[in-house]
Amino acid sequence: MHTLSNYARSILLLLLTALALPAFATANTILIMGDSISAGYGVSTETAWVQLLRKRLDDTGLAQWSVVNASISGETTDGGARRLPDLISKHHPDIVVIELGGNDGLRGFPPDVIKSNLTAMIRDAQDAGARVLLVGMQIPPNYGPQYTRMFADLFPTLSDSYNTALVPFFMDGIYDQDGMMQQDGIHPSDDAQPKLLDNVWPVLKPMLETVSTTSADS
Questions:
Q1: Which residues form the signal peptide (predicted)?
Q2: Which amino acids are annotated catalytic?
Q3: What does pTM read for this prediction?
Q4: Are the beta carbons of 158 and 164 closer than 8 angstroms?
């Protein structure tokens, strides 16, 4: 009976290993590095755009993708640059979505500093073999035309320099529409969350399909 028990345990272990292998082979990870907008500040968890992304992945046959939301309210590019290496080491993402810079701009940080931090994040992600999606932001015009222009130009410039995917403006169709902003005038409302996802999805989806195809071929 002792020999049979050991044999049965061995067979069970082999079966469990075989069942687990496909999941590990096809698993892919999206790491989202964002601020309060991606952290879902002021909105319910179920309606936040990152949660809607998880649902869309399931609904569109991309359920092999998991989403790690490392977004923090109040986060700056400096904080993101400091945290990213450890997050890459822990999660081994295939895609890194960088949605940072808005807080830097609202605090009037020098564009060169913001650019340096975003550059460090892009390089860290690419050096680890991940593809990068850079999410562009803009700031209100009361910061002056020169600063607002320099800030807005950071994102397409970096995207061109490092060959990243780019969402030109995350808040497009949101910031100036009735009911789409919370009372603070800074954060998108619950009603705006599907639009945030719709602004990201046309750029993100081809990346998902490309990475999935590459993983399957390898």
A1: 1-25
A2: 36, 184, 187
A3: 0.87
A4: yes
